[in-house]
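Below is a filled-in request sheet from our internal design queue. Each sheet records the structural input a requester submitted and the sequence that came back. We keep these sheets so that new team members can see what a complete request looks like end to end.

REQUESTER: design group, bay 2
PRIORITY: normal
MODE: inverse folding
CHAIN LENGTH: 289
BACKBONE (tokenized):
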């Protein structure tokens, strides 16, 4: 189990929760499990920090949990780390998005479910690599430029729900493969932190007509190699039920750090629950009868 979470959600004696913008205190806590908290650590950089809201829980003055919501997206990302009961207190009293895309350890789900309805979903695997473990995969790729954003979004439109702005390419690292002039595979970044020397690979996509040719491995390798020029660790997420992707990333030297959950959550409310709960009880009683 990653640092900062017990398997239970019992009340924490002497718990206090509040909003905070103390980057030093947040960084010190998040660095207890740098790889699990990588996205949140990257969001402490000045460029991203203005888009975030943070809550912290302390017990007898010592931090025991933090939570972060990233504003501007819908549903907005919500990251939690620490004691489950303390996490629940933060999302109950400090951070209160109506809908969010939760990133949490399995130990947090029961505690968060007191505040949010949690949609089902497959477990996720957090993987990481550094210069000592990275094994590049050969193949012809080209770094993508902001002017190629239309081609990139045309590719992503096959599997993603939102388009990328040109600044994502300008501020990130994207590599692609073209066949007959057509962009058929690409990989890029979600976030890069010069301050923490961390980066997250993402937006890996291959056109359905060109899969099983190793293009995802080739483009991910190119992005990872570029990032490791300035970063100490590079991380990525992959669904636990995707063995081919797991194998491809392992072949590049990525290692599993932890299993976690990415779940769509909706805040519980008297109006909604007054409708849903009686229906749920009716279906339960039907099954038991």
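RETURNED SEQUENCE:
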């Amino acid at each position: 189990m990653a640092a900062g979470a017990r398997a239970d959600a019992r009340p924490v004696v002497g718990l206090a929760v509040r909003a905070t913008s103390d980057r030093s205190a947040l960084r010190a806590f998040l660095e207890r499990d740098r790889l699990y908290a990588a996205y949140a650590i990257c969001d402490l950089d000045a460029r991203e920090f203005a888009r975030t809201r943070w809550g912290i829980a302390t017990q007898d003055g010592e931090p025991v949990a933090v939570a972060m919501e990233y504003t501007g997206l819908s549903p907005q990302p919500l990251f939690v780390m620490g004691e489950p009961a303390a996490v629940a207190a933060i999302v109950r009293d400090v951070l209160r998005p109506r809908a969010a895309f939760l990133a949490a350890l399995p130990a947090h789900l029961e505690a968060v479910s007191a505040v949010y309805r949690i949609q089902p979903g497959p477990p996720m695997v957090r993987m990481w690599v550094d210069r000592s473990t990275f094994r590049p995969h050969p193949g012809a790729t080209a770094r993508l430029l902001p002017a190629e954003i239309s081609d990139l979004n045309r590719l992503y439109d096959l599997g993603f729900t939102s388009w990328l702005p040109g600044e994502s390419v300008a501020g990130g690292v994207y590599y692609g493969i073209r066949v007959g002039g057509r962009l058929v595979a690409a990989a890029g970044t979600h976030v890069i932190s010069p301050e923490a020397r961390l980066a997250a690979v993402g937006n890996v996509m291959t056109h359905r007509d060109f899969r099983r040719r190793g293009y995802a491995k080739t483009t991910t390798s190119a992005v990872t190699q570029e990032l490791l020029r300035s970063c100490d660790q590079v991380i990525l997420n992959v669904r636990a039920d995707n063995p081919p992707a797991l194998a491809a990333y392992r072949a590049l030297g990525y290692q599993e750090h932890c299993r976690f959950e990415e779940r769509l959550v909706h805040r519980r409310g008297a109006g909604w629950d007054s409708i849903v709960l009686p229906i749920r009880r009716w279906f339960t009683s039907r099954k038991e009868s």
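SHEET NOTES:
- Residues 212 and 244 are 9 Å apart (CA to CA).
- The longest strand covers residues 255-267.
FILED BY: M.R.
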